[in-house]
Amino acid sequence: MLTNHSPLPKLRPIVLVPLIALCSLLAACTAGPTVSNVPSITATASAVASPTRVTRPTATMAPLSTLAPTATAVPTPPSTATPVFADTATIHARSTVPILCYHQVRDWTVDDATVDKAYIMPIKTFAEQMDFLDQQGYHTISPDQLYAYLTTGASLPAKPVLLTFDDGHGSEWTNAVPVLQKHHFQATFFIMTVVLDKPHWLSSDQVKQLDQMGMTIAAHTWDHHRVTRYSGDDWKQQITLPTKELADLTGHPIKYFAYPYGLWNTAAFPYLKDAGFLAAFQLSDKMDPGAPLLTIRRIIASGTWKLQTFQDNLAEDF
Question: Rounded CA gap, 211 and 209, in Å?
Fold first, then answer.
């Protein structure tokens, strides 16, 4: 075989011409041309085998009428199966997401009684708690996500936590929301409507803005009266009308409710369902085995907590 480095042999002119003609004839009879100096192909994620030069037999073309048409794959539509709702026992067993309940987020003053400090979270302490959640990989979730998880087993992000704020104090807007935004956290605001547009409390416009930010706006009665004492027209005054007011402000139904003081009774359940609530939140009592969605537990984030206490409560099985 001749190589790129082999010298051509000396041929007399009379021999060279027939030889060239013979080579041309042989080239025409071969299966294909010799490929040389082909650049190498860089392998991709799916390996492709290098082609091997072979002598192909002469193929006999079949008539076009006998060739089977190539089948075209029909795309399969996505599944639209309706999620299966869990029974109450399953829902009760799934309720293990930590839910923290905050109230005012501001520094203590000389006028704050010792008992009130449990409901007043100093600004620095709140910032430290949110820093901890972010650094430790916690993910804030919405009540919608929690509801889907409890009822259908829908997946939640790793280390989920639900942040809630009760009452609608102005410090939630001025001191808590900027920290939440810094960490890209979402939260739920349970608002009693009697305080709207009052000094030191949330304004109607701020409620709208919270909703537009992606926060969840939820109901917390009209004036924080205990649900366990309602009768007659109280249900309309405390549940129906304030819920409608919040729905009118946000432009969509209000789906979640928090009991004032965390106190509840089974007599409230029909009224909450009639108001359209998917779930209701209490505090530390055991969930009702017959209505776990209407007695979801929370824990008050006390302003007196040290960071270690905060961590311990996050690890507690709710």
Answer: 5
Per-residue DSSP letter, 12: -
The owner of tokens 């509801």 is 147
CB-based contacts of 154: which residues, under 8 Å, 6+ apart?
Answer: 83, 145, 148
CA-based torsion, 156, 219, 213, 248: positive or negative: positive
Spatial distance between the Cα atoms of 223 and 200, rounded to a whole number of angstroms: 16
DSSP-derived 3-state class of residue 187: coil
Identify each DSSP E strand in 113-184 by its residue range: 120-121, 139-140, 160-167
Beta strands in the chain (DSSP E): 99-102, 104-105, 120-121, 139-140, 160-167, 188-191, 216-219, 256-258, 279-281, 299-300
Query: What digits encode the pLDDT tens for the residues 104-160?
Result: 999 999 999 999 999 999 999 999 999 999 999 999 999 999 999 999 999 999 999
Indicate if the pLDDT at residue 5 is higher than 50.
Answer: no
**Higher-confidence position of 36 and 225:** 225
Query: To the nearest 10°, the Cα dihedral for 163, 292, 191, 148?
Result: 60
For residue 221, with 0-12 CB atoms within 10 Å meaning exposed, 13-18 middle and 19 or more buried, which class applies? buried
Amino acid at 140: T
Domains delineated in the chain: 88-122+135-165+172-267+278-307 (3.20.20.370)
